[in-house]
Specification:
By secondary structure, the chain is of the alpha/beta class. It has 15 helices and eight strands. Helix 3 crosses helix 15, helix 4 crosses helix 5 and helix 5 crosses helix 9. The longest helix is centred in the N-terminal third of the chain and has 23 residues. It is globular and about 55 Å long.
Length: about 350
Amino acid sequence: MDVWVIWLLLACVVVVQGWSFTRGRSRNTETKAKSSTHMDGQKPRDLYVLVHGLSGRPTDLQYLQRCLRLRDPKALVHLAQCNSGTFMTYDGIQKGGSRLANEIRQLKEKYPSLLRISLVGNSLGGLYCRYAMALLYDTKTGKVCGLEPFKYLTTATPHLGVGVYGYLSGIPEIVQRFGAKTFTGQTIRELLLLDSDDRRIPLLVRMSGAAKEELPFTTSLRAFKERCAFANVKNDFVVAYKTALPDGPLSNENNFDSSRRDIPRILSRISIKAKAQPSPFEMKSIRPSIAFSDYIFHDVRKGLMQRMSHSLSSAGWEQVTVEFPGYVPLAHNKICALERDPIMTWLNKEGRPIVQEQARW
């Protein structure tokens, strides 16, 4: 695809998101008032924390919140608030995940009856969840914030980063690197796997367990009884199919039934059994290549994603492939039926059957 076409599509997405962002700001007070729902008078035992993505608002996942409430009226279904301020999602996964961990601690203190926790992350929110669970994990008890880890679900989460596959791969490597070093913010640098320096491997690589971990990222992830990742096979402008699935670089998105192309649908459900985690690698095995040309560096990032994929997929997952037909790349918001204002709700409503499947899982 021509580079200028990609930049034009990116500009359209940014304009729509920016307009929606300003519309959503006026609803903050209302959102905070209804961020947590459960039956009055009940003592909830199950906690579901729903976490929005980059530049998102808590209301983005309202439809999933309603679906979960219908299935489990006694549960506490909470829309995370801590990363919804202006530009709050651009200061890095570490800071966003730390804020989320603090918010979960406050919920546990407010509702002492809670016994189990499930985390649901849309896009960047899935990475916030993984960082928060590592901070909250108790290696002695195997619990997360004193609660039994139950389910972890992600929708279009860039588990392996962005910029190498999909639409964004059309942006030249040199432009990606320039943007990462200048104006995009720490979060974008981490998603592009361009946050490495002479001392540390990129954060997402460490979080995957492919490199030495400073926190129990993989242990806390494996502690959850079930793990599930929903991914768009096409029309996701932000997160490519191959990076939204733990084993994305190892899978083939072309082996699907193409008889129906008129409605959104689930193409496949694949269960990956848990197995022993591969040994982490040392920095010296990748560092010499990073100083070469942009083409070589592109290959290095692909190699890192392969290592991350082997490590993450070893935890055992259910992987769900979703297709939104057509040619307009708006599937990233449709997969969570994003609700922020009347326009965005209407644009993304065809994703509601997919969200209902997420709630049933």
